[in-house]
Design goal:
- The protein is an alpha/beta fold.
- The chain contains 18 helices and 21 strands.
- Strands 1, 2, 3, 4, 5, 6, 7, 8, 9 and 10 form a ten-stranded mixed sheet that branches. Strands 19-18-17-16-21-20 form a six-stranded mixed sheet, sandwiched between helices. Strands 13-12-11-14-15 form a five-stranded mixed sheet.
- A hairpin with a 2-residue loop joins β20 and β21.
- It starts with 11 loop residues before the first strand and ends with a helix.
């Protein structure tokens, strides 16, 4: 068995296709459950649905397979499968990352029993993953979005809709504050984005720098509020090694009173960083050994410090230094996306990252030449640090494999001078081809930039044309508005002139109207027999003693309203509708004539009116006649009442 540390004591599922195909017929899977007991493995054959159900029920730490596409037909289904896993469960491909090796080779390298039967392959996958062999397959980042929103619709409206909407938005705001307090209590870094609404929040979105299992909030839906938790998707599929130790890495060292070391993968990912004031060089080397095999040891200054050179020689690695000492601002810019505790860690990290940048083209050329199943790190180390060619390394590796399988030795003959010359020329051609590929890649990048700029230019031109059309439309509407305002003013002036021929708004001039317009009398219009309507008419055009007053709706007036109208001492009150008894009595007592409006021919212009003087006089005369009859009736009634009271007194006597 390999000496690799067993990092997992939890349950591991090893899975391999038993029959069928996930892309077609319903597949069945060989399942091996590894719970830390090497001799107590559990084996079963399950359907795809039962496998998903077991994963949900047991929540294993790892689901291990030799090919992730045995569990999903394509990338979209794989992402869906990853999203359905429990929070603490990882999908691990034990054969590597994007360019996996064969399971037999990985099992042989780590001393794990292997057989070609599906159950044996599932067992090998489980054992390898239990010993931290393989790469975690991830489609999600460590950033999680927590969204607090309405749990129900606010509806289309109604007389109580405002109160209902306010309650829902208030509940969302309350729950959002509770979530915010929980995140702060857990010490999690997050950003909050809120959309306010009537009475509270329509929704609140928290972007948290943590995985769902580390967040003290869960999915819920209760009444007015809904809480949804969703991990942030990556642009693609990412592979992360299970083991902390990486086989081949680039090391950046910043020596001094405080020594800092940074470990960076061959693809530029920062794996670890460390600094210390007390540790010796032996401690530094031991720390590096625990984390990988250096291909390049880099420094951020030129020439390479002696301490860094000793570390480089101890690993027989290639060295890298910049052409000039790296400025602080460049180091800050290159490490802006990576966390570090002090400037020494930053300098070590910058040295390693710049070394990876300098060898990026070489790393890519090596990767393109490798067939499937070849350890990229081993080839890269021998080419970069050992000065060998890719072809030589591949020949050695293939010969080693053939020697293991066939157990026959082959002694290659010594090349002739002409053959060596051909080999050197072929290597030179390969290097030039690699350089050509690099230049072609740069040209493609430039072409992409040109296309992007042309697209932006097209968008800008469209926006300019849209703005021009908008300005033209605004100008047209402004001209139309000016024309309509002019027409309105002309119509208003015409109307005013027409009204002036009938009225003068100053009450002192109403007599002039009667004189100039022989046979006409002005009429003051009151909409309703209420105190508010009387005061409104008074404020609008004045009511004075001797005015003819027309009440459109005379019903419903009380004592105070009748007394208010009587206080103006109008000449006559023309009415529509019946007066109340109390109002009629008050006006009669004040000797204010009251008559029906139907008896007078009136012409109205908006709030103003005129009537024939003869009609008004006729109404007044008719009221006087009725008043005499009313007085006689009142006197007769009073005499009858007195006689009745007198007789009643005699009878009592």
């Amino acid at each position: 068995m390999s000496t690799r540390t067993n990092a997992l004591d939890a349950v591991v599922f090893g899975v391999d296709v038993q029959s069928g195909d996930v892309r077609g017929d319903a597949p069945s899977y060989a399942l091996v459950v590894h719970d830390g007991d090497e001799d107590g493995l559990k084996r079963d054959v399950v359907s795809h649905r039962k496998l998903r159900r077991l994963i949900a029920d047991v929540e294993p730490a790892i689901v291990a397979t030799d090919n992730m596409y045995e569990l999903a037909a394509d990338k979209d289904q794989l992402i869906h499968f990853l999203g359905s896993l429990p929070a603490g469960t990882k999908l691990v491909q034990v054969t590597g990352d994007e360019r996996p090796e064969s399971l037999s080779r990985v099992a042989k390298r780590h001393g794990v029993p292997y057989g070609k039967e599906p159950m044996k392959e599932a067992e090998a996958a489980a054992r390898l993953a239990a010993h931290s062999v393989g790469h975690e397959v991830s489609a999600f980042t460590d950033t999680t979005e927590v969204k607090v929103s309405r749990g129900r619709s606010t509806g289309k409206g109604g007389w109580s809709a405002d109160r209902y909407t306010r309650r829902i938005h208030g509940s969302v705001k309350r729950r959002a504050r509770e979530v915010e307090s929980a995140l702060e209590d857990a010490g999690l870094a997050f950003e909050r984005e809120v959309r306010e609404a009537y009475g509270g929040f329509a929704n609140a979105v928290f972007t948290v720098d943590a995985r769902p299992q580390d967040i003290p909030v869960s999915n819920e839906r209760s009444g007015d509020v809904r809480v949804e938790i969703e991990r942030e998707r990556r642009d693609g599929i990412e592979f992360r090694p299970l083991a902390k130790r990486r086989d081949h890495v680039v090391v950046g060292v910043d020596p001094g009173t405080t020594t800092a070391v940074a470990i960076v993968g061959l693809q530029g990912e920062v794996l670890d960083v460390w600094s210390s004031r007390t540790n010796t060089m032996a401690d530094v080397i031991e720390w590096i050994v625990e984390r990988g095999r250096p291909v390049i040891v880099a420094a951020d200054v030129t020439p390479m410090p002696e301490t860094v050179e000793k570390i480089r020689r101890s690993f027989d690695a290639a060295g890298w230094t910049p052409q000039r000492d790296l400025p602080v601002d460049e180091k800050q810019h290159r490490t802006a996306d990576e966390p570090y505790d002090d400037d020494h860690q930053r300098d070590a990290m910058a040295a390693a990252l710049y070394a990876v940048d300098a060898h990026e083209d070489q790393f890519e050329r090596i990767a393109r030449k490798l067939p499937a199943g070849i350890d990229r790190g081993e080839v890269t180390a021998r080419v970069v640090a050992g000065g060998e060619t890719v072809e030589t390394v591949l020949e050695d590796l293939i010969e080693d494999e053939e020697g293991d399988e066939e157990e026959n030795e082959h002694q290659p003959r010594e090349l002739t001078a002409e053959e060596r010359r051909i080999r050197d020329l072929e290597r030179q051609v390969e290097r030039l081809e690699g350089h050509v590929e690099t230049l072609e890649g740069r040209i493609e990048d430039r072409d992409d930039q040109i296309e992007d700029l042309e697209a932006e230019l097209a968008v800008t031109r469209r926006e300019e044309r849209r703005q021009i059309r908008k300005e033209r439309e605004v100008s047209r509407l402004e001209r139309k508005a000016d024309r309509l305002e002019s027409e309105r003013d002309e119509a208003l002036e015409e109307k005013v002139e027409r009204m002036k021929t009938l009225w003068k708004l100053d009450h002192s001039n109403f007599a002039d109207v009667s004189e100039k317009k022989a046979g006409l009398v002005p009429v003051k219009v009151i909409e309703k027999f209420t105190k508010g309507a009387i005061r409104a008419a008074e404020e609008a055009y004045g009511i004075a003693a001797g005015d003819v007053v027309y009440v459109r709706d005379a019903s419903g007036a009380g004592r105070s309203t009748a007394e208010l109208l009587a206080s103006f001492e109008p000449r006559v009150v023309l009415k529509n509708g019946n007066l109340s008894e109390i109002a009629d009595a008050i006006l009669f007592d004040r000797e204010i004539p009251v008559g029906p409006a139907d008896a007078v021919a009136m012409q109205e212009v908006d709030e103003l009116a005129v009537a024939r003087e003869s009609d008004v006089e006729a109404v007044i005369e008719d009221w006087h006649d009725r008043a005499l009859e009313r007085e006689r009736d009142q006197k007769a009634e009073m005499v009858d009442r007195l006689i009745s009271e007198h007789r009643a007194g005699d009878n009592e006597a």
